[in-house]
Amino acid sequence: MSDVRTQAVREPLCTETPGCAETPGGAAAEEPSRTAVAATVGTPTTVSAPTALPELVGTGLPVPLVDGRSVPYANLDLAASAPALRAVADHVAELLPYYSSVHRGAGYASQVCTSVLEGARETVARFVGARGDDVVVFTRNTTDALNLLAGAVPGATLCLDVEHHATLLAWRGTAHRVLRAPDTVDETLALLRDALTAEHTALLAITGASNVTGEILPIDEICAIAHAAGTRVVLDAAQLAPHRRVDIAASGVDYVVLSGHKLYAPYGAGALIGRRDWLDVASPYLAGGGAVRSVGVEDRTAEVSWAPAPHRHEAGTPNVLGAAAIAAACRALDPVIDEVAPAHERALLARLVDGLSGIAGVRPLRIWADAPDRVAVASFTVTDVPAGLVAAVLSAEHGIGVRDGRFCAHPLLARLAGGADAVRVSLGLNTTADDVDRLVAAVRAIATAGPEWDYREVDGRWTPTPDPRDLDPLRLGAVVGPGGAACGH
Q1: What CATH number should be reported for the domain whose range is 96-333?
Q2: How is domain 340-470 classified at the CATH fold level?
Q3: 113 is catalytic
Q4: Domain locations in the chain?
Q5: Residues 87-112: pLDDT tens digits?
Q6: Which of 167-176, 229-238, 375-384 has the lowest mean pLDDT?
Q7: Which of 20, 113, 330, 408 is the catalytic position?
Q8: Mean pLDDT, all residues of the chain
């Protein structure tokens, strides 16, 4: 199977200009178009050639092995954090000289930054097919966005047990139910229909694509089921948006949450996009400057008139660079997200699944065998070899980055792997057939003969012993330990 890099032509999204957004914080009132608009800060206004897969920063990065060799890094851990798109890094670098205060600054640089920030809302809204009256709130990440929404839901919530911890835990302290997902998609849809009919629920929280298996549920059908019961839907698109088109208006989803660091925009921002009414009346997510219309003091008490969303939930100085980065990623992905990227990743995922299936002792993890689609994420276990050791060997002996642990989805791993850790491989725009073949060959060697180097567990993490690699190439004096947050183990 060859490395698929099909080309396609598509006009880019509206870029960040002062006139691109209807208001400072909402999507445009009219149906979004795909016409290019000149950017305040250096974005081309026309497209004159077919668009191939966009370039990522760090592709071909040389990494050391324990045997003294150096090889190009095969980054197969994009589901955790994806490298920056070159267009994103260039846009942020171009914006930095203008970096200044926003919204209340009269200086030219402040006006440029305000334009970029508010235009970014429009770009993000268009990328996910937001309705004309939807609002875009910038957050730190998907987890932050879900916790923000949790404070605005006027009633009970429901989710499945296959979710990432962000979706499982955001609603704690409220009326929240968790259902065990059946083994087929049809049974899962029937379960949701029965549960939402039996008990009034304000919000259904559902994953766009599993961060463990990559499997995608039929979102349109889920929205129809929920809406028939008077329930809104929030879609966790953290894993879906980098791989498939998310279309709020077409699917009927009420809210979408996503993270820049998974969308090839690792600059510390995320977004909540959706219906305004709940957000306009909810208590502000943070209390502070920028979230108010006016503040006064009466009887030694601060009296506040809060602003509507999005500013109501964005107190403090906003992450302008993060918002600009997400918008730049949306513009770069828009021409390829419908056909080019999915074709590339489907071919590589098939190559990966076929390769791993031929290795004795490797067991793939799946939730629903009948899932209608799947993004390029695959998890597996290796008989008698701890997942952490597999990941350590892949890194130290082969220059391959993967994820091991329980992927902040402990209930799901308890079901699929008996609570044991697993190995996750996640592919993306810069993944090649050679990367996949290296991974398959390395896993086969590990499953057949084990590691070639010595390893030991230190604070719950496997590490080469000794480890001659330079783990401080930037000369920051960092002391790198093998330990990690408990969520992944």
Answers
A1: 3.40.640.10
A2: Aspartate Aminotransferase, domain 1 (3.90.1150)
A3: no
A4: 96-333, 340-470
A5: 999 999 999 999 999 988 889 999 99
A6: 167-176
A7: 408
A8: 89
